[in-house]
Amino acid sequence: MTLIGADLSAQSILHRGATQARKAGASLRFDDERHLDLSRWLVEEAYILDDQRYEEWLDSIAEDVHYLMPVRVTTALGAGYTTSPGMAHWDENKYSLGRRVARFLTEHAWTEDPPSRLRHFVTNVRTFETDVPDELIVDSAVLLFRSRGDTNPASTISAQREDVFRKTDTGYVLARRVILIDESVLRTQNLAIFL
Question: Which of 33, 58, 112, 136 has a CA 20 to 30 Å removed from the CA of 189?
Answer without folding.
Answer: 58
